[in-house]
Amino acid sequence: MFKIKKSGLLASILAFSTVLTGCAMGGEQAVRQMEKTTPQEVTYVDEEAINQETSTEQVDKGAQGVVAEDTVQRELYLLDKNGLVVPQTVTLPKNVEVAKQALEYLVDGGPITEMLPNGFRAVLPAGTMINGINLKDGTIVVDFSKEFENYNAEDELKILQAITYTLTQFENINKVKIQINGYDQTNMPVNGTPINEGTSRANGINFDNGDVVDVVNSKAVTLYFLGQNGDNTYYVPVTRRINKNENNSYAAAVKELIKGPNAASGLYTELHDDIALLEEPTYKNGVVTLNFNEGILSSLQGTALSQNILNELVFSLTEQQGVESVAIKIKGEEKVINESGKEISAPVSRPKSVNTGSF
């Protein structure tokens, strides 16, 4: 049974155990198909998977108790105009097969088509069918139809990331394995990206190695930068490697946000070089406290904290294990005003969903 993260509400599905043998293949032909690609080296990050919050299901209280409405919000990972894997929160019809439904909305030409904002596209090849799903001990095995193989090699890692992040929004899913017509895949079918025992959020998303080239002596952080499509601003997760010897991972994340995204990524950040931490960030009971100089305040208003800066910080820091919220101080002062004129007097938790309102 699947649960939605931190929603306080259980959503159950039927776990399908479908192992299709001989479908569209047979005998030696199937063996040749399984062996046609060879593994290629790929950089995998070594951080533990971070649970991603998703939106809660809306409910009505009727005479017979709590009754779920006929729609629910899900996070789907799509490709933006820069080819980056981006979460978008979508309202979908209520369906007991939540994992299968989420994947079906990733298919090009499928039900997502009329919902796509300008500049975004679905990640799975047109015509891809979900033959079956089996969940056991936190690992979900998805059996795709033969059409799954019809993608360009340069999209392979993006497809794997989108599938993994979309499915791991459900609390009981930690790892993803892939079959094609009932045959286990140890590698992706086109470019040979290793799958091995499955992929998780620990493998990262939208890789940017930054200034670090030594994978062994580095560690990964996931940062959220800003993307722009017309008037629509959205947040994009980027996994970057930093020096393994960074003593304070929270300070390191802030430093990387200020450094900004790769110039060729098409992303940007509102954090700038005038922003500085006045002391090392501290952690207590799930809360990271950051004490900034006045440089973090809006250059236009001089006294307000930009909502985009706040979101970049909260999204990025809550990706780190155990962090549930972020407290912001300015020169030691705990009462901070946001750009709407409201006081931020308590730690800010990660929103239930990323990039809402785009659909």
UniProtKB/TrEMBL annotation:
Highest taxon in the source lineage: Bacteria
Keywords annotated in UniProt: Signal
Domain GerMN: 99-189, 250-339
UniProt key word DNA-binding: no
InterPro entries, alphabetized: GerMN (IPR019606)
Signal peptide location: 1-26
Keyword Phosphoprotein: no
Name assigned to this protein: Germination protein gerM
